[in-house]
Amino acid sequence: MFGWFSVKAEAAQQSTEWVSECPSSADQAQVLTPVPEDANEIDPLNMMPPPNQRPSPDQPFPLPTIRQKSNIPKAGTNEHWVYPSQQMFWNAMLRKGWRWGPDDIKAEDMDHIIKIHNANNESAWQEVLKWEALHASECSLPKLKSFGGKAKDFSPRARVRGWMGYELPFDRHDWIIDRCGKEVRYIIDYYDGELDPGSHRFAQLD
Question: Percentage of residues in the chain with pLDDT exceeding 70?
Fold first, then answer.
């Protein structure tokens, strides 16, 4: 799905409603873990169970479990966040209620989906850094502390745009940035829009 998204920074307030399939903790990068139904622990940083790299029942084709390291530094560590593998992304879609059919996506489509997902997050981080540059004297190395999706909770900006007759976003992410000890929330609204051919970037900051 194509989209633009807008960003707004404000004081951070944690929410237990967050659900996200965005970058995952690097320390779990290549480890097979129990399926979500067997997982008792939820990562408070992304409100997700441990990474599930197992093929789902009746999965029509195998998917890679390799994960790509992001360029987004992880707060409290010297590491970077790690994106989900194609297998993890597939399992996440199933958790959200999607079911595969014969006319649905093919194995090669998952590669494109992951590239689009990762490129959009990298783009979002670059925009966050532009805003954070305004506070460079306060902190020269901001890091991402936590994040989550709130698709059904429209931001104030999105609601105002809706009242003015503009389209509502199809998704929302909240990113909590560690600005050298100060938590700052960035609200990212994703809107339908045009594709930038060949770049795997389906979203831009408004």
Answer: 68
